[in-house]
Write a structure and sequence with these properties.
The structure is a single chain. The protein is α+β, with helices and mostly antiparallel strands and about 140 residues long. Helices cover about 45% and strands about 20% of the residues. A 4-stranded mixed β-sheet has the order 2-1-4-3, with helices on one face. Strand 1 and strand 2 form a beta hairpin. Helix 3 runs antiparallel to helix 4. It is elongated and about 70 Å long.
């Protein structure tokens, strides 16, 4: 939607091609349930319609629809699917990257610092208790020794 609004047609088409390839990979690996597969195909056809209206119309009718894909059809983004359960927290010792941890998205500062201290790669560079601990929420733990 934003690519169309910004008139970035090449990036919109590239994103649809990428989505098509990912859908084929997903179907090959997991068998992708038929109701989800149909929803994904319908959404993709709606996105193709501004670029290839006749092809999209034919695909839309092949999916069993009687109306036109060009008549009030556009996929709606559900932001809840974009939320991740985990985040990557970078761990540094004296400003040098020592590890990257996969932690729950709602991790607290105390939990992140404890997980960083427990990491073997980080622990090898800590001599006792750090002088200072810098924490950037959901992104970084830096120990100053």
């Amino acid at each position: 939607s934003s690519d169309l609004t910004d008139q970035k047609y090449n990036t919109a088409i590239a994103a649809m091609m990428k989505a098509t390839n990912e859908l084929y990979d997903l179907k090959a690996k997991t068998g992708f349930a038929s109701s989800h597969w149909r929803f994904a195909l319908e959404s993709l056809v709606m996105l193709i319609a501004p670029f290839a209206p006749h092809t999209a119309e034919e695909l839309w009718h092949n999916l069993g629809h009687e109306d036109s894909v060009n008549k009030d059809h556009w996929p709606v983004l559900d932001q809840s699917y974009l939320l991740s359960d985990t985040i990557t927290v970078v761990v540094q010792v004296n400003g040098k990257l020592r590890s990257q941890l996969q932690l729950p998205a709602d991790v607290s500062e105390e939990q992140a610092v404890e997980a960083a201290k427990a990491d073997d790669k980080v622990n090898a560079h800590l001599q006792g208790e750090p002088k200072k601990t810098i924490y950037v929420k959901g992104k970084l733990v830096n120990f100053v020794v």
